[in-house]
Specification:
This protein is α+β, with helices and mostly antiparallel strands and 106 residues long. The chain is 52% helix and 17% strand. It has a single domain, classed as Winged helix-like DNA-binding domain superfamily/Winged helix DNA-binding domain (Arc Repressor Mutant, subunit A, Orthogonal Bundle). The chain contains four helices and three strands; from the N terminus they run αβααββα. It has a three-stranded antiparallel β-sheet with strand order 1-3-2. α1 crosses α4. The longest helix has 30 residues.
């Protein structure tokens, strides 16, 4: 027989995992809606942490690249995150609303 503390800990872990899965789907949906991807800053504004972005990239659902804006000493470098084919597949098949997403995403 398990103690109540173990049951609560397992439940807490399940809730945390479900929340992270939901956040991943939401981030993938945002990335899918942006043809050129999103800047890391924009993803953070929408509440997607750097850790979540790293997880998406590590899992192969997104890629990150750098883009230089401007020239000379006034230029800035930004990182842009884009959804991959695997990310689009995950979004369509893992989302409860995946069947309702437009074919243009794939």
């Amino acid at each position: 027989m398990h103690s109540p503390l173990i049951a609560v800990k397992g439940f807490t872990q399940m809730i945390r995992r479900k929340r992270q899965e939901r956040q991943c789907r939401q981030a993938l949906a945002l990335l899918a809606s942006c043809r050129d991807g999103c800047t890391e800053g924009l993803l953070r504004v929408y509440g997607f942490t750097s850790d979540l972005q790293t997880k998406l990239i590590r899992d192969g659902f997104a890629t990150a690249g750098t883009q230089v804006l401007g020239r000379g000493p006034n230029s800035i470098e930004i990182r842009r995150v884009k959804i991959t084919r695997a990310g689009k597949h995950e979004l369509v098949h893992a989302s409860p609303l995946g069947a309702l997403l437009p074919d243009a995403i794939m």
